[in-house]
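RECORD TYPE: inverse folding
INPUT: structure tokens
STRUCTURE:
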């Protein structure tokens, strides 16, 4: 693992990802999509202390294949085979039905490489915070609770590589559940 991050490579990945996601918004319908890969990367650097450039480059790119028209070939050409394979470890097979994709995330979590696990936990932290703080308007309390339960099942198979990251997930999940409980109590 390198000691310092390569700013030039990080900015190239950020530029590529921002361009690919340029027409997309987050689930709240307002935030630019690129805020999400930036959040994931920021947590990996600040909380997990990751100083491995390839991990952060892959984090910036982690949703490009799943959510834009970016191809594996394109990623390999721009960023090399290692980063491409890291991104693909974080990519669901969109040809499968959604329920099956969600099931596979739980089943496959513990078979991911150590670097992909870190990216995936940081991704789940960001998604849990988003569902808690800026939930999509049409998500019921029940749907939000189901999401939190599913995320914790996935992370159960991913954890163990970085104590700070695991702790932040646990804290984020606990706070999100408390908030849901409070909202459920006030809505009856
Ligand atoms: Zn993501």
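DESIGNED SEQUENCE:
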């Amino acid at each position: 693992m390198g000691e310092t991050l390569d700013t030039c490579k990080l900015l190239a990945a950020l530029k590529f990802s921002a361009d690919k996601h340029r027409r997309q918004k987050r689930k709240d319908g307002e935030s630019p999509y690129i805020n999400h890969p930036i959040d994931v990367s920021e947590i990996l650097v600040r909380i997990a202390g990751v100083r491995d450039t390839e991990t952060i480059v892959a984090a910036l790119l982690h949703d490009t294949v799943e959510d834009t028209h970016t191809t594996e070939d394109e990623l390999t050409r721009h960023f090399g085979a290692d980063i491409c394979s890291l991104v693909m470890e974080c990519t669901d097979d969109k040809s499968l039905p959604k329920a099956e994709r969600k099931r596979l995330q739980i089943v496959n979590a513990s078979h991911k490489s150590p670097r992909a696990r870190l990216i995936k936990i940081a991704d789940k932290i960001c998604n849990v915070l988003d569902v808690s703080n800026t939930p999509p308007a049409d998500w019921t309390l029940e749907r939000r609770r189901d999401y939190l339960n599913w995320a914790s099942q996935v992370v159960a198979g991913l954890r163990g590589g970085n104590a700070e990251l695991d702790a932040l997930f646990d804290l984020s999940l606990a706070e999100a559940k408390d908030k849901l409980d409070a909202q459920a109590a006030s809505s009856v």
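NOTES: The chain is about 70% helix and 0% strand.
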